[in-house]
Amino acid sequence: MTSAKLVAGNWKMHGTSADLREVQAIADAAHALDGRVEVALCLPATLIHRAAEAVPGFPVGAQDIHMADQGAHTGDVCAAMLHDAGAALTIVGHSERRDAHREDNSCVRAKAEAALRSDLRVILCVGESDGERGSGRAVEVVCGQLDASLPGGEAAAGAVPDSLAIAYEPIWAIGTGKIPTTEDIAEMHRALRQRLLAAYGDAGGQVRILYGGSVKPSNAAEIFAIPDVGGALVGGASLRAADFLPIVEAAAR
Ligand code: PEP
User: How far is the CA of 10 from the centre of ligand 1 (A)?
Assistant: First the structure.
């Protein structure tokens, strides 16, 4: 298990072939950092194959998968297809999918297990709403999400800790420029660590817990200095190498 931080970009529904030059620039810079930080980009499905061919060895990922291994699911893409296209990892349970696609914890858990069955590493997202934070229930809600979303059984055996990362992403911090206090991030990561230890024993102590939500070059160093922040999931600031690389470099220090 590496102790290097993981910094993953989530391009969401952005990016066409013209943007492969940004992937190339990010992959080149990540390579030069020589393992001091692990970098990955979760791209739109349409770019995965071309990106994987353009930057061999650099981890290109998906943003979602179907929970089934194959079948009659018009328009969906399964883990094996993404792996075949060159993906090395996938996000599951992003709040935009939990909300817009009504994905509940059991669906997220099934997706995480499907990903691991097809040798895709998993970034599993959890996070509270503004109202839940305001009512003092954030830790309870997020730990409940984690407990119910974590992969188990055969899929998880042997995959934890290396193939699983958790992303704590407060919904109200995504794309808003707002971030929780240092104390609130530390409190949440501490609580999530306890849940991972309860679920997986010692291996749960080594699963990386990323922070996500309005991470930028200007706040990255402060966030990475918080105890048990094992990296970041970055949305808007991952689209351009010029914004993303200072975040990656802050994680490498
Ligand atoms: C995200 O959606 O995963 C995210 C963290 O977005 P942003 O960095 O733009 O807040």
Answer: 7
